[in-house]
Write a structure and sequence with these properties.
8 helices, alpha+beta, Jelly Rolls, four-stranded antiparallel β-sheet, about 25% strand, Arc Repressor Mutant, subunit A, 2 domains
Length: about 240
């Protein structure tokens, strides 16, 4: 059963949220935001937990409150191909709920994460009473989806594997990078296998590419984290 949230609790929850500036509901009037908060369920997921899969019925959507989530599509042989990364403030599955369709991608946590689950039927009831909200949300979630999937190569692109890897790392840096003295540190814990799936290469070959880029001081790996030393202008030929 959804918990009851009064106006003060709603505003307090929003003010304490680290994703409040990226949240879809940040500009929603306080009374309407309180109504939405009243149907939200807070859920906690451990690392590598599959939240939902491509093709599953969209009974509700999720808002990432903390942590990072990998978006993926599954091939016929069961392999997961990364299609994007979602961070705090991102809505997952909202378009499917509004359109009455199934999820068009899967979602898996990359680290321990906190998400807000919004039941679809209750949310659609709120939208029916506030139709202008639907237009604003569709626009915002479209922009979020574009950002989360930017930098992912489409099947028609035939870039060399090292260029695909660097392009993906640069896109991740734009999404979840933190500028430091030694470069831009990727704040999301991507494994070599995650990167391999993202660029369509084997894990072994992706490891070789990372080693080559590190040897050329394009990036460095520090305790499992990746730091980009140079960006955009870097030339790679592999």
């Amino acid at each position: 059963m959804a918990q009851t949230v009064d106006r003060e609790d709603s505003l307090r929850r929003c003010s304490n949220c680290t994703a409040q500036h990226q949240c879809l509901f940040v500009s929603v009037p306080a009374n309407l935001r309180c109504e939405i908060q009243s149907i939200i369920e807070l859920r906690y997921y451990s690392r590598r937990y599959t939240i939902f899969r491509d093709g599953h019925e969209a009974a509700g959507f999720y808002m990432v409150r903390s942590g990072w989530v990998k978006l993926f599509r599954e091939t016929r042989d069961g392999r997961r191909v990364v299609s994007g990364i979602a961070g705090p403030g991102t809505a997952l599955g909202l378009l499917a709920v509004i359109s009455g369709a199934s999820y068009r991608f899967g979602a898996e946590t990359l680290e321990d994460s906190e998400l807000e689950y919004v039941p679809g039927d209750l949310f659609l009831g709120i939208l029916s009473r506030n139709p202008l909200l639907a237009i604003d949300l569709l626009r915002a979630v479209g922009e979020q989806s574009q950002r989360s999937e930017d930098g992912h190569d489409t099947p028609g692109e035939k870039l060399p594997s090292a260029q695909r890897l660097l392009k993906s790392l640069e896109a991740l840096a734009d999404t979840c990078g933190k500028v430091g003295q030694d470069g831009i540190r990727l704040q999301v814990p991507m494994t070599v296998q995650d990167l391999a799936d993202r660029i369509g290469c084997s894990r072994q070959w992706t490891t070789k590419l990372l080693n080559a880029l590190e040897a050329r001081h394009v990036l460095s790996r520090q305790q499992g984290w990746i730091v980009l030393m140079r960006r955009k202008s870097t030339k790679v030929d592999r």
